[in-house]
Amino acid sequence: MSSSNKHVVILGGGPCGLYAARVLSRVGVKVTLLEKDVRPGGLATSHQRGENWYDLGCHMLHEFDKEIYEDIMELMGDESIPVQLDAKIRWAGAFYRYPLQFQDMIKGIPLPILAFYTIGLFYAQIRKSLVPWTPKNAEQALIQLYGSPLYRFFFKDFTHRYWGIHPKELSATFITTKMPRLSAVDVLKKAFGKLGVKDKGVKAVDSALHEETLHYSRTGAEAMPRAIAKAIGEQGGEVVVGADVSRIELSEGRVSKVYYQKDGAEHSVVCDECISTIPMPWLVQKTEPPPPQEVLDAAKELRFKPIAIYGLLVRKEKCLDALYIYYRDRAFHRVGEPKNAGLTVKPEGHTVLIVETTCELGDAKWQGTEEMKDRIFKDLEAEKICTKADVVETHVLHGETGYPIFALGFEPYLEKVTGWVKSIPNLQTTGRQGGFKYPNMHSAMRMGATAAQTALKRLGSQ
């Protein structure tokens, strides 16, 4: 039987799941994608409230993956709007380009303090070169990367506030997969390299380029997943929204059927291959018969940081002199103004702000209590972004599993769960939640394409 007669079921309709379905449907494989939300896109979409669209964070497509970029541009057509990257960070009493650059660092710190940080960085580099050591947690990894002074000033408190976890309780793996490099520090490290002090220690994530073109749309982040979902349908695939996966049935050690709830009724779909992008713990909990107890226990140790997004309609033409700005000591960690990237906002003379916060399920930020709104409005006013009186509408959007938490010692639990998944010959788990990773949109889509290719090889060998 050819692979075109086989059926692939994809769990989750974020960028990863959507692009896996795109790759498979394009070559004629029958695909059913199940997405529990009312529209595709996962965290990388937007939701309509009243006459306006509000993104679940700042999500724009980079051009780094040429194949995916060209494919998405063809799908979106004239809906795509190119926009130059313009990100900033509020730091040392002023605004600087993000990622932070060396010249900004020099301007932002008094010379004696800058010398102190530079000496700390130099000492960290010398120590790594003379006595290599392996960091045991994120705090040690950050100190190895940047030295104790910069760690205490720039990273310690912000990381603690953002995650609700002290860096001592985060894995060193977190630094190599999530924490972007400071471009300012890279300049100093290159100078040290010329003196024979080579950087052989922990590596942080490569930062975005200082100058690059991003892609957006007049209706926000929702346009891209909508275009991909449309293409999947045109190729014979099916994207089912409002479909909450309830059971994943195993038969003879393989995924044989997936059940989901939609419109108050349970439905099922038979599958030959299953690609999961839903959070790993959910995949484990929904499987019948259940996996061994040690796998169930391991899955409970894989935690995610929820996010609460405050979408504000503001009675101002413009609030920010950037696409988005990072803040280190406010109730929010980033504020974006998608109108600056081409979002259509109604009525005229108004703009939309995307105010991003991390939270816990059920806490004040998650609930959007009046007290929390007042705190956010107060911080927005302190930053001269807008006043409470300027805010016409407030909409709270949620991401229950926004970011994987790389808690200290999480790796063995992750290996236990992924080992169990690999023992099921027609099951894959991938993407941000399904892979417990931090891909951006094009990287997530590449992960989906890779999973689709693996599925095609398996189907061809059956």
Automatic annotation (TrEMBL):
GO molecular function, one term: flavin adenine dinucleotide binding
InterPro entries xref list: Amino_oxidase, FAD/NAD-bd_sf
Residue spans crossing the bilayer: none
A Pfam family this chain is assigned to: Amino_oxidase
Domain Amine oxidase intervals: 16-321
GO cellular component: cytosol
Protein name stated in the entry: UDP-galactopyranose mutase
Species: Roseimicrobium gellanilyticum
